[in-house]
Design a protein that fits this description.
The chain is an alpha+beta fold. The protein is built from six helices and eight strands. The protein has an eight-stranded mixed beta sheet with strand order 1-2-3-4-5-6-8-7, with helices on both faces. A hairpin with a 2-residue loop joins strand 7 and strand 8. Helix 1 packs across helix 3. It is globular and about 40 Å long. The chain starts with a strand and ends with a helix.
């Protein structure tokens, strides 16, 4: 387990799948995900077996409270890891208390732990993400964490009868280290 003050990251376990499925199926969350379908437990188990257990290019964690309860808070990970170019796609959400991105700082601390792991343990150079332009909670969090916008994919996502742009944002290892020094 990777421990911070308030949160800890632990490997996703099969027992986590009903929680992850319930969180990911919330319409207010699903609008922010590339996976637009309602998921069933079979979908979650297939993802778990294919990506979490058998894909060396994906590292996923359950975010839990770092206390005696270890209450599940959400999920985060590094996906589509490119071991040659040393970058990965960031995945993150807080399901606890219907937060998505919480005000208590769980998402922020979980990201810090994940970034330390990605840069220091895995040797990554860059962590990037795609955020739909209406996803202001994530955009604000990632800007606070030192991400910069690399590009804009125009009218890349159709949602609620309208085309939305996608922001491509990234954090370089040196950005993370300098932000930690602030």
């Amino acid at each position: 387990m990777i421990c911070g003050e308030k949160t800890a990251l632990r490997a996703v376990e099969k027992e986590d799948l009903p929680y992850l499925m319930e969180w990911r199926n919330r319409p207010e969350y699903r609008q922010y995900f590339r996976e637009y379908r309602e998921l069933n437990l079979q979908n979650q188990e297939q993802w778990f077996n294919n990506c979490v257990v058998n894909d060396r290019n994906t590292v996923m964690f359950t975010i839990v409270k770092n206390d005696e309860t270890h209450e599940r808070l959400g999920c985060c990970g590094l996906c589509y890891i490119n071991w040659v170019q040393r970058f990965a796609d960031l995945s993150l959400y807080i399901g606890w208390n219907n937060a998505y991105i919480d005000k208590e700082g769980y998402a922020q601390e979980a990201c810090g732990l994940l970034f330390d792991y990605g840069f220091q343990e895995l040797g990554l150079h860059k962590i990037w993400t795609e955020i739909y332009e209406f996803d202001t909670p994530k955009q604000e969090l990632y800007l606070q964490l030192g991400f910069q916008q690399d590009g804009l994919l125009r009218e890349n996502y159709f949602h609620k009868g309208k085309w939305w742009n996608s922001r491509i944002m990234s954090l370089l290892e040196q950005d993370h280290q300098s932000k930690k020094g602030d």
